Amino acid sequence: MIKILRYRLFAILPTLLGVSIIAFALIRLAPGDPVMLMLGERGATPEVYQKMQASLGLDQPVLLQYFKYLGQLFTGNFGTSITSQRPVFEEFMDRFPATMELGIVGMLFAILFGVPMGIISAAKRKTPLDYTLMGGALLGYSMPIFWWALVLIMFFSVQLGWTPVSGRISVMYEIDQVTGFLLIDSLLSEESWPAFKSALHHLILPAFVLGTIPLAVIARMTRSSLLEVLREDYIRTARAKGLTEQRVIVLHGLKNALIPIVTVIGLMLGAVLTGAILTETIFSWPGIGRWFVSSVEARDYPVIQGGIILIALTVMIVNLLVDLIYLWVNPLLREES
Question: What domain range includes position 193?
């Protein structure tokens, strides 16, 4: 375990270096000028434009700009937002709990429904139930997020009025940000139960939308992994001993099929936590996805660069945790490490 941890931690630095190069280069290849966006057409006189460009360091050679930025990264400085004049790390941490809360609830929904769907589908292989469940999973994977979100908003929010359209909680509740997770902070507030219900109502629809694709992927991976395990000799032996089919599948089959399932859950969790851009934009969810969209529109170079690096770091930490779960699930890996 120590060997794997050491290897993963050493791999983080060169990976972040590569991510910083790509982020720095791509944002400067994109059309648009942040100085012009800040000053506007009327205020962008040549003198004012040059002064603003110099204050932001954009008048220097690109290579020199990169090395200065790299030096800041080594000191833990991810830059300062051009539009808000706040440190990028502070803005990221202000919004990250909202994205994490949405992502965790979405993944819990995907796991709680996706794994049982895969197990049932594998147990009832080549039956109408199997075809129905896997057809539904394929449909969920194929639907565009923006279309699916708008359909659910029109039905549940507009037609039925069951869920709010946007935001994290009703404006009538003032919740102190203790943990950043409104489901927890609302329970700690004075109006705990009404505030919690409001936060939950705001969270249900975006979490359902965000968890649809991971649910489909987890269900199909669970089915294929479990079917492969159920063909093994020790499964036939367990059946020959007179064990019930439920016990064979859950205790002997699922336990040995967990590694690919854990892999896909880890990959989906990293993608969900850092890539909920469409969901957050449609539901006006104040997370890092919506923050990124507004930063791209404003050509806020420090936010985009620092945000990409912080997101990459988050994905690497998630992958590290997945590797540790591997060691817990598979004893052979523990012996090799």
Answer: 88-336
